[in-house]
# Entry
Amino acid sequence: MHKTTLTTNLGALALALWTSALAAEPVTLRVGHVGHDHHLALFVAADRAEQYAAETGINLKPVEDQKRYELLEDGRKIADVEVVTVGGGSKMPTALAQGIIEVGLGGTAPVLAAVDSGAPVRLIAPLHHKGDMFVLRPDFPAKNWQEFVAQAKQAQEPIRIGYKSPVAVAKVIFEEALRHEGIPFGGDLSGGDIKVQMVNVKGGGKLNVSLGQGLIDGYAGNNPFPAIGLEKGLLRIVCDLEDLPAGNFRNHPCCCVAAHIDALKNKAEAVEALLVLLLQATETINKNLDAAVASATKWIGTSEAVERMSIPTSAYIMEPNAEWHGYMKTWLDAMNGLGVFTGTLAKRSEPEVATLAYDLSILKKAEARLAANRGAQ
# Structure
């Protein structure tokens, strides 16, 4: 009896040690971004992680800069991190759903649309607000929103306005403003008296190209594309999209951090460490424009002048406070009004959507970890 019990206990101990060893094995975490300055926190985190490690012990050691890193915690490797560029709009959450990436930085609206369709992704942190602009070609007669509305209502031929993807943040806001103004719009000209034709140019990088080639008269898109177009003399910035009527998108959440649900279950330690770095990087962006510009130009290839124009149009915020939840309600109302939701999230209240589309638990741990480290210093 005693021998049997001892053998059983030793077997249990061996199993526990083996399980613990497996848990300590580094994982691989694939992180995707769209490649513009709304995702600046990732770039700054990678560039300045060694400095941040002095505060938390969490470091991102480059193996191949901008592509492969070792995620370390107090010198112990917890993950091999692969950083890849994925397309904007629905392409980022699609890449998440397909397992191409496990954590992604991208638009709030596309992430919500992906959850609505049943994709196994969750919004795990706010990231960025604002930074979306409405622009027109330089010779277009309207110089402000009121003049554009007047031009659109009396237009004999539809005004062609570009967007980068069907559920792009800028497109949703712009169409909500058109709806508020009573201006008929759509992509299909056979659908009636269309005053504004919405044109999918299929990618943020094609917005300025399409405008320069005369394929569109203007576009609703995110910086830095308008800043790049302005630098090249291709456009005139009419207004910030947050200023459009009915005024309900002021300081709107634009981008977020999302993750595949399997990564949240099986790679939570690595995801938490990454969020700690993003929190630190967000603070740097808000305090040190020079550091933000340096990382943006390095990672994106834009000029310093473009980034000094673009970055200040954004707000880099990772706090899911009551104000953020209120902004998310605005998103839900707009997307339901435009018929974007047809599945899980259709006609749901924001608190209901929060239980279905968000998982903020790891962010809370990351915030607590950062606060505890600072309190101990």
The chain has a mean pLDDT of 93.
